């Protein structure tokens, strides 16, 4: 018979919450600490996409598992806003089309739900796309959740079990054995401590495990007022092929060799991703910046580029942009690891570095850690 354990989880983002959800689901007790009143990092600054289409072949199994878990969670916790909307990557050049054709004919195309659509079929599936493009790579397995409401919804679900407590505005300062002491001097005893610090690689994280193989990545994004019509799938442009390992191959090499991105897109390492929120507005991004120190302000040129590309594909003006923001996420630089798990002591672990895959893979990574630690 499995003994009930008490976990203290430090960090209220997607990884911390997914690990709490997995532990609660196995009958354990969880105390979760978050230094802010609510998660404010990459967890709420992303698209909320559950992105199957571009994951590498090595990551495909865990990605599909996580997508299935999200659908199950969405059925039990409607507040997360799970939608099996799929995605369409729109291509505008012959070189991009060749990458899409290779993906649609590839050995994992069926598992990903790939189908290459001509413009008429694209518009039949997503009538809001009335702009200029040659074709669209449809991925029926892509999905979305509402990133800004998913964590509170998951916490409310866990609290209803009577085995979960959330402490907002509680910064963990020290871990002594398996006891966590916060900045108010409160002591939380545990059998197991999981530290999910997001992009906070210094402070307590460094004290526990030193320097670990992760880097920070900065992005810029924006959100519009309601579109006034339904965008029935998530949308990407051909530049997104460059940032997802699932599209690697000679066609992508040819694309990179033959077609240089526009100066702004290349400089900011950009792709267009666009998803409609439940309130009707569009979340649009994004950029990639790897060299620290990161700027404290945002650059207007990427927003102008993203607006122009989105309007070309939609064939209409975007609604007013109502929010712009930057965010930073933690990315493992170990090519063999999806996430970095560093053991600080027998029953103390630091887990971070999921990169842009955090929202997609969160439930499966929580489940995987639970299996690894025999929870």
TrEMBL record:
GO CC terms, sorted: cytoplasm
Classification via InterPro entries: FAD-dep_OxRdtase (IPR006076), FAD-dependent_OxRdtase_HpnW (IPR017741), FAD/NAD-bd_sf (IPR036188)
GO terms assigned for molecular function: oxidoreductase activity
Domain FAD dependent oxidoreductase as annotated: residue spans: 7-372
Membrane-spanning ranges: none
Claim: Oxidoreductase is one of the keywords in the record: yes
Cofactor(s) named in the record: FAD
Keywords: Flavoprotein, Oxidoreductase
Pfam families for the chain: DAO (PF01266)
RNA-binding among keywords: no
NCBIfam families (UniProt xref): HpnW_proposed
Family listed: Belongs to the DadA oxidoreductase family.
Protein name in UniProt: FAD dependent oxidoreductase TIGR03364
Species this chain originates from: Nocardia pseudobrasiliensis
Origin organism lineage: Bacteria, Bacillati, Actinomycetota, Actinomycetes, Mycobacteriales
